[in-house]
Amino acid sequence: MKKLIGFSLFLGILSFWWSRESDREDSETCTTPYVYLSDQSRSQIDQLQDGYDPRRFPIEALHYLSAGNEKILFSWDALVDISNKTELGIYHMDRFNVNQVVLMKKNLHYLSTVPGNMPTVLQVSSILSTIDDFFRGETPYIANYEAYHLTPSDFKFTAPSPHTNSTPRYRYFKEGSLLEQPHLSHYDLRFYYNRIEPIDRLAILHRIARSWFRFTNRLELRTWISHGTLLGYYFNGLVMPWDDDLDVQVTALSFEKLKEYNGTVLIDYDDGFNPGKYLIDINPWYGVRSKESDNKIDARFIDVDSGLYIDITTLSHDYIDRGAFDDGGLTEMYKVFNPGFDQIMTETDKYLKEVEEKFNQSMKDEGLVFCKDYHVYNVDELTPLIPTVFEGEVGYVPGNIQNLLLREYKRKSLYLYEYKGFIFDKIKRMWTHKSIKYEYNDLMSKFIRHHESLRQSTIKRRTFNTSTLIRFDSFRVEPWIRKKYQPAYKQGI
Ligand SMILES: *[C@@H]1O[C@H](CO)[C@@H](O)[C@H](O)[C@H]1NC(C)=O
Ligand SMILES: *[C@@H]1O[C@H](CO)[C@@H](O)[C@H](O)[C@H]1NC(C)=O
Ligand SMILES: *[C@@H]1O[C@H](CO)[C@@H](O)[C@H](O)[C@H]1NC(C)=O
Ligand SMILES: *[C@@H]1O[C@H](CO)[C@@H](O)[C@H](O)[C@H]1NC(C)=O
Which atom of ligand 3 is nearest to the CA of 356? Predict the structure, then answer.
């Protein structure tokens, strides 16, 4: 009898979940975020997992990390083969070392562990009988969001670089593309598990972004979304569906703070049922600031379940060589000083002199900052960092979004309504696609509407109003839930 009730409940959730799907011509999938389900339905979902219990996570994670490399599918040998390709240099597959585990649930808890001396599952479980016990009695951390004013000193490393230009280096972060598998180019090799379809990739990126914001807000790091992620913010506050990863930038000072977490696994319980596990990994050659395509990424925040990640690049004004003016560099540099410029450069020599003068002056004033891929910014257009809401969680954007996007993507991209087969639905304010499934639900649409009013103030007035910094519950469905449901649905239940 009990089984029967459970089964019909399961049916109920399922039909609610997918009933509207067949009515639609496009590939929209109506999902119900976990937080919208009744307690009963939630426990049904939990039971559908093969013994899945999110509260087991830290134990599971430690076990996983201490057990070693069962999930590393790519062998050392395969990587050695790649080293034969001279353009890629010599690769080493470092084992990831874990220095500490940080648990986050409205607060941060540190659980330090020493590599090679991992606590056994048994020991850990006796410390953490349940997560709730572990966090009980803690005062939740209440974030007090404010705009951050940046000055040139934010972009200076305080400690001398541990490495110089002459240190032998290899590409530190390794993606699947190194195995000549372009479709794996956005997975960290150490954690690649299987290829993820777009709708699930977005759900994972959603979770990663939210955890990153919570973690860095707690540490008060000066970090903000950038590149394609910022363009996504501009449109509807969501990751763009064709993006494979997330991009953030960080000041040199905050980077040094982040560096203390190198080798940390962060376990985040703040999204309720879908806690995420992330490795913080810092490129040892972040201090070599010259252009180097193999090591332009200073750090990564990697989802250890999927291998998807955030690319973290540091801005500093340490060093830039003449190469910055080569290729497209001169035009980009010119635009830094003339934000409205949107033409093709013809008289290069004339511009070159003007740019050099301004460049020399700005270097003296420490007004310019760079990443290792030579994206150049005026400190004035980054400051103040403004708190806003992205993917439903509070994160920061640079002060002058429009300038940055115009320079990087040109004016036409801000009026883009079709791209790579995606169409921007102006009513829903969503990127949609005829044949690629995407998620859409009430909570998501509520968020998008909220974002629309929010972005007026961030982009036009370059300010914020505390009362609009509303956090939304997770509105994308995790792949493991979808996987559990979808096969049954296809079998015609
Ligand atoms: C490089 O390639 C050559 C020829 O394919 C092969 O004989 C050699 O073993 C390779 N070296 C490494 C380090 O894989
Ligand atoms: C971060 O940790 C990894 C793994 O232990 C290590 O290889 C790397 O050099 C460290 N980075 C820095 C900046 O120390
Ligand atoms: C800018 O500075 C460089 C290096 O100090 C110098 O060689 C160059 O002549 C300067 N350019 C201008 C236009 O002042
Ligand atoms: C902030 O937003 C609230 C609610 O929309 C509004 O009542 C208030 O006047 C706003 N404050 C400012 C300073 O704009």
Answer: 13
